[in-house]
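Researcher: Sequence of FAD-dependent oxidoreductase follows. Predict its structure.
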Amino acid sequence: MTANNQASHLIECDVCVIGAGSAGLSAASGAAQLGAKVVLIERGAMGGDCLNTGCVPSKSFIAAAHAAHAFKAAMAMGVGEGLAPKVDFQAVHDHVHAVIGAIAPNDSVERFEGMGITVLKESASFVSPTEVVAGNHRITARRFVVATGSRASLPPIPGLAACKPLTNETIFELTTRPDHLLILGGGPIGLEMAQAFRRLGSEVTVVDAGEILGKDEPEAAPLIRKVFADEGIALHENAQFADPKLVDGGVQATVKTASDTRTISASHLLVAAGRTPNLDGLGLDLAGVKTNKKGVEVDARLRSSNHRVYALGDVAGGPQFTHIAGYHAGIFVRNAMFGLPSKVDYAALPWVTYLDPEVAHVGLTEADARKQHGEVTTIIEHFAENDRAQTEKRTEGFIKLVLTPRGKVLGATMVGPHAGEMITLWGLVISGKVKLSAVASMIAPYPTLAEISKRAASAYYKPKLFGKLPKAWVGLVQKLLP
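Model: Prediction complete. Tokens:
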């Protein structure tokens, strides 16, 4: 029997959302609160990747690792000499899942049904450009949202799948600490998990086909390499990962670089080497929706080739961040609910790699800025010159500003403690077109790490403020003043 024949219950609505992750939940709630009749369809766990296998568990796990590492930092200040953290990995697992449980009610079926949204726990598939089937329901809608997210993918390496490697979807189910975690992939997930597992007591090896932090400013990677070396994390960049296989007690693989070939044995293998959009079974061809290997093809308003169908979040083929999913939902609401031709603008797109120190960026890198604008100016200030950083013995890191010659901020990178919190200021500067002079003249509380932003902004004006002309003017004023 076909899906068409099975479907018996017709639902007519204004908006049908497929996928209850960050993008889908935000789009559904926004539309419902504006009076639209909304159907929300989710075949898996409410909250999607972010709540269940992504941002929430990973940052909870990293928080536990920070707590363990705090013992070492305390000893450097004369506190707890000789003490070492005792890690109960089962308790760490329980902490991670307790945080998920605490946040889950915000994404629950009950909460969204309380908004008047019809929630269907089914798989959804288009059967025409204006109809979706989910279980025994046929849904017609004025607008559809595809927000099905993405999943971890395995590189086409012979033998890799047979090793049944961990991914972000399974790593947080571990209740016993790995003796040696081998990580394939040096992107944000791979690096974050490397440092966290190392701080919780695992031996860790990272293998990446390229160089780490390739999308960030080049000054960031050397600093993180040193941190990893100091913490005892083995890092192999520009390396080939080959011949993975299961062995007694774990896995084994060959790692080749330009200067070395070695066999690495580990108790566990984590693959963090890319993601694949969730398009399977959606019947997008029947809806007249074009796709490619990155996801649904969309225009600047996030509309697919069928303008009734929008794609939001990871499945839209753009930047894969939870905050982008929420941003996309806002674009959808403005277009579909208010009829405003709102378009995506990534000029102030922030991203953070939650290492210690954190690596945070917003806007353009220097290289991208030179491609788009030609001549640019850069300013770098180091946390070693920040008094608060000195008091906390956290002097590693820097801020880098990328500016036009006239002082317009194009991008900013911060590497340091709490950089992810402090980069928000520069996102506002870029998106709000705030003048650099406003940051330079603001009163920043002392002593704070955030003073580094004021210091960097002020540095742009130093050559002009203390040049020959200002000095001549001051000399004249001093002669004329009584």
